[in-house]
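How a chain folds remains the central question behind the approach discussed here. The record that follows shows the chain in one-letter code together with its fold in token form:
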Amino acid sequence: MTTVTRSRFWLPLLPLLVLLAFVYWLDQQAQQAITQAINHQRHDPDGIMNNFHAITMDLQGTPHILLNAKELRHYPDHDTTELEMPQLTILSREHPAVYINSLRGNISSGGNEVIFQDHVNLLRKAAGDQSAMTLQTEYLRVLPDQDRANTDKPVTMLNAYNTIHAVGLEMDNKTRILKLLSQVRSVHHAK
């Protein structure tokens, strides 16, 4: 057999080999797309911290915001941070200190919003002529830099003279204004 005869024999197989190579390449591309889609659906933390503590200072170097948690988990897929047993303390020279804790919490991706969930307790220390106040709810959104908090869930507030039940609350600790949104019921305790 001559070389020309051999090439005529293999020539019809050449398009088949090209087609086989194309199908193999196409399969590899599809497998990569499936793997990327599966990995994108995963919700695994990229960082976990136990006994987390963070302190934000004011311009004079005095602690202003203290955030602690039993465990912190950061998830890169949504840029969310989950907290287990978070505790937030907001300190100020001009306003009463506020202490907040709950069983679970989340921090926004920018860090300017902290969500407390499940058995939320808030304590605002006494200041001037105002007695200390405690607040209990199941959900509380806190903006620590603005010294504000709000919820649309039922709340129970206690101070030295009153027990107040309401649904929804807006609290501004700087102006010391507390707005109850609906279904407000109050019991006044005489001294």
